[in-house]
Design goal:
single chain, 228 residues, alpha+beta, DNA polymerase, domain 1, Cytidine Deaminase, domain 2, 2 domains, 5-stranded mixed beta sheet, 5 strands
């Protein structure tokens, strides 16, 4: 059944206006986001196909463009709308880092405020966070997207942005898609090198945090930073 064949008061948009979004099913919410179906498929059928493909609404957060395009009726426009919606939801619920008054003065706060960046990512991402002398965030840079199990960036890129932001300190953070947050030998060697450069540049590396979906490892908390 196409939307236009449904009685007006029973259509998803009208039900949302009359009862509120919380009363709508996942299928109805997707129907509103997609707006319309195709010539041969209603928007509700298309929404149902999406949910069937991902088996649960929770799995939709890991959707990729290629996976969405495999669903009949999901062209580039509709697929990018879904991906934009997913990313926006992540930012709304997990990203509070843009509050200029927030103090990032311990590893747990840094992890909690930035973990959305790594949620369900299949590649290693390497970010640097730049702070002023009050430990307030003045800049954030994604410096490398790696393979499944390896990320590489050059120290000069890290400190280049520190000067651009007039930063007083830096925290590095990257993910291990495997879920094991224990630092590798390469992680330790790289961190030690950054700490030494930070001492020379007078811009200390205050932490290097390795994250998974549900856990993190802090070099600072584990006494692995050799800042003097």
């Amino acid at each position: 059944m196409f939307i236009k064949e449904i009685p007006l008061k029973e259509r998803p948009r009208e039900r949302l206006m009359n009862n509120g979004a919380s009363y709508l099913s996942n299928e109805e919410l997707l129907s509103i986001i997609l707006r319309c179906g195709t010539k041969n498929k209603s928007v509700e059928d298309l929404s149902e196909d999406i949910l069937k493909e991902f088996k649960s609404i929770n799995n939709l957060k890991s959707a990729t463009l290629n996976k969405l395009l495999e669903i009949k009726g999901m062209g580039l426009s509709k697929s990018t709308i879904i991906l934009a919606m997913i990313e926006l939801c992540k930012r709304i619920y997990f990203n509070n880092e843009d509050d200029p008054k927030k103090i990032f003065n311990n590893p747990k706060i840094i992890y909690e405020e930035t973990k959305y960046l790594f949620n369900d990512k299949k590649q290693e991402l390497f970010y640097c966070l730049y702070f002023n002398n009050k430990q307030q965030l003045v800049g954030k840079e994604l410096l490398f997207i790696g393979t499944v199990n390896k990320s590489i960036t050059h120290p000069r890129e890290i400190f280049k942005y520190a000067y651009l932001y007039s930063a007083s300190s830096i925290a590095c953070i990257h993910n291990h898609p495997s879920g094991d947050v224990k630092p590798s030998i390469e992680d330790i060697t790289f961190t030690n090198a950054l700490v030494e450069i930070g001492q020379i540049q007078k811009i200390p590396i205050i932490d290097h945090i390795i994250v998974s979906n549900n856990n993190y490892y802090s070099f600072q908390d584990n006494g692995k930073l050799n800042n003097r």
